[in-house]
Amino acid sequence: MPLDRDELRQLYRRRAGHYESAARLLGLLGMRIRRYRELAVGSLGLRPGDTVVELGCGTGANFALLEKAVGPTGTIVGVDLTDAMLAQARRRVTAEGWTNVQLVEADLADYRPPEGVAGALSMLALTLVPEYDTVVERCAGALAAGGRLAILDMKEPSGWPRWLVRLLAWLNRPFGVTLDLAERHPWESIRLHLVEVEHRELYFGALYLSVGERRERS
User: Fold this and answer.
1) SS3 of the chain: helix, strand, coil, percent, to 5
2) Element of type H or E holding 210
3) Strand, coil or helix: what is 37?
4) Do β-strands 195-202 and 207-213 pair in parallel, antiparallel, or remain unpaired?
5) How high is the pLDDT of residue 217?
6) Whole-Å CA distances, 64 to 52, 110, 120
7) Is 102 left (phi over 0), alpha (psi -120 to 50) or beta?
8) Contact 53/114 with Cβ under 8 angstroms?
9) What domains can be seen in the chain, in order of their start residue?
10) CA separation, residue 29 to residues 42, 165, 171 (Å)
11) Contacts (Cβ under 8 Å, ≥6 apart) of 75
12) Residue 26 has what pLDDT?
C-alpha cells in the first residue's frame, strides 16, 4: 500500500539528516542523479530574473542549478511536506548566502503556486502524491505563457523481469516507493493540462522526464 501523507511526513523526518547520503547510494545502481537534475532544470528554459517553483524540494539539492538559471534577480520557491527536510534546505540556503529563496511547508495537494511563474519542477516527488493530477492542473494554470512544468520521476519499466522490478521497488522503499505507485502516471496529466514538449525515458525505462508548456490561447 502507498504511504499516506502522515506516514510520508514521518518517513522523511526520520531520513532528513542523511537523505542525500542515502540518495547518493543510488549511484551505485547506475542512476546518474546529478545528470538527471541537470536535464530536468535545463528543460525549463529558465532565464535570469524568472520565478521558479520546486514541488517537493526536499533538502534543496536542486537549488544550486536553479540559482544558476534564474540568477540573484530571480526567485526560487521551494515547497515540501516535511519540516525536517525544509530545515536541511534552509541550512543550505544560509550556507550559500542565497537571499532569493522562499521555503514553504505545505502538502502539494493543497498548495497553490503564485500566478505567472516561469517554471515549475518536481523531481522524484510527485508520484508520491495521490492528487498528482490536481497538482499538475494548478501548476499549469499558474504558469505564464511559455512557462514550463518538468516532472522527473520513477515509473514501472516495460520489458524488465518482474523480480527485477520488485527488487528496484524494494531498494527504493526507504524513499516511500512501493509497487502500487506504478498505477500513477503524472506524465499523462502533463499531456492533459499542457502541451507536451519533451518526454524521454531514463535509466532503462525506470525513470522518465516529462515537460509541458503553457501556450497562449488563440
Assistant:
1) 45, 25, 30
2) strand 207-213
3) helix
4) antiparallel
5) 54
6) 13, 26, 15
7) beta
8) yes
9) 5-213 (3.40.50.150)
10) 24, 13, 10
11) 50, 51, 52, 100, 101, 102
12) 67
Which residues neighbour 153 within 8 Å (Cβ) at sequence distance 6 or greater?
A: 122, 123, 124, 125, 126, 127, 186, 207, 208
Q: What is the pLDDT of residues 114-136, one digit of tens each?
A: 999 999 999 999 999 999 999 99
| The three cell numbers locating residue 166 | 520488485
> Which grid coordinates belong to 25?
547510494
Q: How many residues does the chain have?
A: 218
pLDDT for the residue 218: 44
Q: In what order do the strands lie in the sheet with 117-123?
A: 101-105, 75-80, 51-55, 117-123, 143-154, 207-213, 195-202
Non-local CB neighbours of 176 within 8 Å, separated by 6+ positions? 2, 3, 7, 8, 11, 12, 128
Cell numbers standing for residue 167:
527488487
Distance of CA 89 to the CA centre of its chain: 14
- CA 93/CA 97 separation, integer angstroms: 6
**Beta bridge pairs of residue 195:** 213
H or E element in which residue 63 lies:
helix 63-70
- C-alpha pair distances (Å), 129 with each of 9, 14, 100, 110, 124: 12, 19, 27, 11, 11
